[in-house]
Design a protein that fits this description.
With 589 residues, the protein is an alpha/beta fold. The chain has four domains: 147 residues, 3-Layer(aba) Sandwich (Rossmann fold); 234 residues, Aldolase class I (TIM Barrel), CATH 3.20.20.70; 98 residues, no CATH class; 82 residues, no CATH class. 40% of the residues lie in helices and 17% in strands. Strand 1, helix 1 and strand 2 form a beta-alpha-beta unit. It is elongated and about 95 Å long. The N and C termini lie far apart (82 Å). Its cofactor is [4Fe-4S] cluster. Keywords: Iron, Iron-sulfur, Metal-binding, S-adenosyl-L-methionine. One of its GO terms (molecular function) is catalytic activity.
């Protein structure tokens, strides 16, 4: 029999660890072909490709992001070949199994929970006596009625074969994100999370894990994400792995972990700050809410004071980027409470702040108790909430406006200096800026169209004009700084109107050439010739002293010259500034 395991990833760069675990466990007894697609691929294209593989058995790995598209594919495949055996597995179909047997008649079997051993035993029966009642952790139909076999005991992870040694993967390792796990399970009981259902934490053989990481790096892997639910639950284990990765990493490789920040000891962070190369590690930290009463309702233990200490220490170390998560829509978290949560976390200035909405996942305690909080949510995946007893749909929509602007203007780091100035000097709280701008963005209909970088700057300026700020020119100055310093090459036509006349600009350039120390020692060391200065720089006049602001964080309303130098040899953009009065010239003619 030809056996295929398949899934629809969220993006092309993602890889499915589940498929590789199933293949590794089934081989060498069975030859298993892997077929990965994305949720953006047309279903007909997927079906056509799978059909060409001439499968007798297909297993699909199912999650909230791909279940609906996977069902479409299975329906077509079954029509084409009614004899094809289709197996569904994964977290999305592990719960409410009888529902899925009824919903997906095309699925001959559903693997429940941890799938490696179940899949292998099911293959044994499909090739043998077909006594499916003997296969633990599988559901099927018999005489038209559902049969759900009890789940099996947890597999011994220390004996698991490596899922990374397949020849067909080697050429793709440098182009894709590689997922790896060193443990399964979670010690916590957060009622919105599937991980809370599995009791205890089990570990893979750590020496085998290290060998896998060496293999992946040797074969070009660049981004390796650990899928452990709490990587640092064991401090000694985390320290051992951190030390190993620091000692043996390859240049350009990045490792990402999901950590629980409030249990991370200061000495561990100090060790990383002292020893980790910059950019080697990234941390993902689930905050979700800073409201203690809300956290208690979902059985989430969190000490935000200690979490803040960890995030702050890591940020001050300057070695590790941090991605912090929030969930809107938790029980008793109304609009104002979520606003406070947002402001609490934004105050930490994480490199990325992910604002997500509660999803009522099958099998979670929160879904089972949904009526207690009058939750209304989508009937199909991703089961996102529409409202509850303290958060009407109108507030959900408002928070979605915040999410949209947060993604475009903060997480992409296109306007860090501008947003920092706005939230510190123009709005009562950061949330107010994101909310007001997000609502304006929606009212203008911009949510339905695409945007080039220049469009984002123009639209922010258009919005700022509606606010009638007294320091509007200063805001535009920061926008110019952000635009210029984030360009790789000298922009041909910036989004603003040039107000510096040619002869005035030339006068500034001549002063810099005659006395480069005006612009500071770093600029003087560049030793730019006249041709380079004119060809590879942009000069603007700012309505404040930029260098004073960078040094003190305070605004001095004395105009300054800003020079953006696009260093072609170093492939770098450098900003230099000096007060206008140092040149003895008027601001503009």
């Amino acid at each position: 029999m030809n056996i295929v395991v398949s899934t629809l990833n969220a993006k092309y760069i993602h890889t499915s660890l589940a498929l590789r675990c199933l293949k590794a466990y089934a081989e060498p007894d069975y030859k298993v072909d892997m077929a990965e697609y994305t949720i953006k691929d047309p279903a007909m294209n997927i079906v056509t490709d799978l059909y060409k593989r001439n499968p007798d058995i297909i297993g699909f790995s199912c999650y909230i992001w791909n279940i609906e598209e996977t069902i479409k594919v299975a329906q077509m495949l079954k029509k084409i070949n009614p004899e094809l055996i289709i197996i569904f597995g994964g977290p999305e179909v592990t719960y409410d199994v009888t529902h899925w047997l009824e919903r997906i008649p095309e699925a001959d079997f559903i693997a429940i929970g941890e799938g490696e051993e179940t899949f292998k035993q099911l293959l044994d029966e499909l090739h043998g006596d077909r006594q499916f009642e003997n296969v633990s952790g599988v559901a099927f139909r018999k005489d038209g009625k559902p049969v759900v076999n009890p789940q099996r005991n947890k597999i011994d992870l220390r004996e698991m074969p490596s899922p990374f040694r397949f020849e067909e993967d080697r050429q793709e390792l440098s182009k894709r994100v590689v997922y790896i796990e060193t443990s399964r399970g979670c010690p916590f009981s957060c009622q919105f999370c599937l991980s809370s259902i599995e009791v205890g934490v089990r570990y893979f053989d750590r020496e085998k894990v290290k060998e896998d990481i060496r293999y992946l790096m040797d074969n070009g892997a660049r981004t390796i994400k650990f899928v452990d639910r709490t990587f640092n639950i064991s401090r000694s284990y985390a320290m051992e792995m951190f030390q190993f990765l620091i000692d043996e990493h390859r240049e350009g490789t990045v490792f990402q972990f999901e950590i629980t920040a409030d249990i991370m000891r200061p000495e561990v962070i100090q060790f990383l700050n002292d020893n980790a190369p910059k950019g080697l590690f990234r941390f993902e930290i689930g905050v979700q809410s800073t409201n203690d009463a809300v956290n208690e309702l979902v059985k989430r233990k969190q000490n935000f004071k200690k979490l803040t200490r960890t995030v702050t220490m890591v940020k001050e170390g300057g070695k590790i980027d941090q991605h912090l998560d929030l969930i809107a829509g938790l029980p008793d978290e109304d609009y104002n409470s979520f606003k406070n949560t947002f402001n609490d976390v934004f105050a930490l200035r994480p490199e990325e702040l992910q604002l997500g909405f509660l999803k009522m996942l099958r099998g979670t305690g929160l879904r089972l108790s949904a009526s207690r909080y009058n939750y209304q949510y989508m009937d199909q995946s991703p089961y996102e909430i529409l409202s509850n007893n303290v958060l009407p749909f109108s507030d959900v929509v408002r928070i979605k406006h915040v999410e949209d602007i947060l993604e475009k203007f903060w997480n992409d780091h296109r306007m860090d200096e501008t947003i920092e100035f706005l939230v510190e000097h123009c709005y009562d709280t950061p949330f107010d800026f994101f909310q007001n701008f997000g609502t304006y963005w929606d009212e203008m209909g911009w949510v339905r169209i695409g945007h080039q970088l220049e469009d984002l700057f123009r639209r922010l300026r258009q919005y700022i004009e509606t606010e009638n700020f007294s320091n509007e020119e200063m805001i535009e100055g920061f926008m110019k700084i952000d635009y210029l310093q984030n360009q790789k090459h000298k922009p041909r036509k910036p989004w603003w109107d040039d107000k510096v006349e040619k002869q005035v600009r030339s006068h500034y350039y001549q002063q810099m050439l005659a006395n480069p120390s005006i612009m500071g020692q770093a600029f003087e060391a560049e030793q730019l010739a006249e041709k380079e200065l004119y060809k590879h720089t942009v000069l603007e006049i700012l309505p404040f002293d930029y260098m004073y602001y960078k040094q003190t964080g305070k605004i001095n309303e004395q105009p300054s010259v800003l020079l953006a130098y696009y260093d072609q040899k170093a492939n770098d953009t450098k900003l230099y500034s000096a007060p206008v009065e140092a040149f003895g010239l008027p601001v503009v003619s």
